[in-house]
Amino acid sequence: MISWRKHYKRGLLAITLLLTTTASVHAQDGDPKNGEKLFKAQCAACHALDKQMVGPALGGVVERLKTEQNLDIDWLRSWIKDNEALRASGDKYANEVYEKFNKTPMTPFPNLSDKDIDDILAYTTNPPAPEPAAAAEGGASQADTIAALEEARKQSDNSKILLISLGFIAALLLWLLLRLRQLVKLSQSQELAELDQTRIHSIGDFYSKYKLVGQGLLGLLALFAFYGVWNWTMDIGVYKGYKPEQPIYFSHKIHAGDNKIDCQLCHSSAKYGKVSEIPSMNVCMNCHRNISEYNGAYLEPGKDKAFYDGEIQKIYAATGWDPESQSYKNKPQPVEWVRIHNMPDFVYFNHAQHVVAGEQAILNSHNKKNPNDQIDVVCKACHGQVDTMNVVSMANDFTMGWCIECHRTTEVDMNNGYNKEYFQNLHDKLKKQYPKSEGKITVDAIGGLECGKCHY
Fold first, then answer.
1. Of 64, 96, 398, 446, which is the most exposed, with the fewest CB atoms less than 10 Å away?
2. From the CA atom positions of the chain, what is the Rg in Å?
3. What class, spelled out in words, does domain 2-125 have in CATH?
4. What angle do CA 255, 253, 406 make, to 5 degrees?
5. Distance between CA 23 and CA 124 in Å, rounded?
6. Other CB atoms within 10 A of residue 226 CB
7. What are the residue ranges of CATH 1.10.760.10 in the chain?
8. How far is CA 52 from CA 45, 80, 183, 233, in A?
């Protein structure tokens, strides 16, 4: 009888242990390596293992749910495949999670099989160790050792070359010293004293002897000085190539180039307004609310992932965004951007007039004049290939002459609906006025060179 009770207690203990470890056994049955691939493809946009993003941190989620909520892996499968249905069934914890994360529903994944989910959970429970980095580090260490030995050998060779050079210089100095002694003795001779009487001893003597040559050189020097001053005055206010450092690093190559973000998504007023404004930080947060770290393949030379992640954190600090609570709970800080393109106050320039009315004419003219620098967006005609710039710089002179030359060479499309109707009575007059144009009318022919167009 005693033996039966002992075996009964052992059986109960085994059943209890089995029930409490069911979730971990399921997680261990999965393939963490496959789970890592699935996690990065399906989950990494909103979740991380070690920190909260849009959703909670998922490291050890299986054990955590078992301990805190007494929920097993079947609940996780139901939540991942269709969390909306799970909430609709009245599941208490499913609705608590929904409320806690600002009522943001998680994307359902009905396409994931139970095996796929087990693999993902196995990855969150036991993330696989990185690929054998030790061997790579060892190889790198061996390579470093070889490089260090090679560098030491080069330094030894350099030391020998330096000693030989110093010896040569010492010999040269000794030879010069001997020659100087000979010259001193020679200077004391009678013949040299007589010869010295015929030599020029001052600048005044030299100028008197070569007066005409001196005046010619002075005139030439004055001419070069005037030319230099003239060029300097012509460069006043011209800042081509200017690219100041901004308080938050923003790479147009990553955003407009790699990610193909349209210019007017951020600079929205360029199309229908006079000024192309600097985007507000709320525009940045439209994307970066859910992008808290940089996972792109491109890294600018000298910068790493940690640098880009730090710049994203500056956006959060400027807007007062708290990524932990997913809310604007902190005090926002203004960003002091450094302006790059800035027309003088006496110049009138309307972006809409060029981006909308002159878009096709500017594109055609630029691509015709620059066959090796074709553009697909009208903005690039003035601002250059911005989608290739890590730091935006001023691509052109933006001088009055530069604008006038553009007006003189950009052909107006006289066949579009507006121009055809508005200038219908001027066509013949323009053809007579510009006979060499062969019917092609440029911007200057329709008032593009009138002072009042650009100056108040």
1. 96
2. 39
3. mainly alpha
4. 105
5. 12
6. 10
7. 2-125
8. 12, 17, 87, 58
Query: Please, what is the angle between helix 281-288 and helix 305-319, to 10°?
Result: 120
As a whole number of angstroms, the distance between CA 39 and CA 45 comes to 9
Nearest-5° Cα angle at 432, 431 to 434: 65
pTM over 0.85: no
End-to-end CA separation in angstroms for the chain? 111
What tokens does 213 get?
A: 């040559």
Count the neighbouring beta carbons within 10 Å of the beta carbon of residue 56.
Answer: 16
| pLDDT tens readout for residues 266-300 | 999 998 899 888 899 999 999 999 899 999 999 99
Q: Tokens 């989910």 label which residue?
A: 117
Nearest-10 Cα torsion for 39, 44, 49, 52: -150
Taking a C-beta distance cutoff of 8 angstroms, is the pair 115, 123 a contact? no
Is the pLDDT score of 23 beyond 70?
no
Please state the length of the chain: 456
Q: For residues 29, 33, 39 and 44, what is the CA-based torsion angle, rounded to 10 degrees?
A: 140
The label of the residue with tokens 């499309």 reads: 413
Closest CA to 45 of 58, 60, 27: 58
Q: Which residue matches tokens 């991380």?
A: 48
Only one residue has tokens 């002459």, namely 401
List pLDDT tens digits, range 300-315.
Answer: 999 999 999 999 999 9
Which tens digit of pLDDT belongs to each residue from 42-80? 888 788 888 887 788 888 888 888 888 888 888 888 889
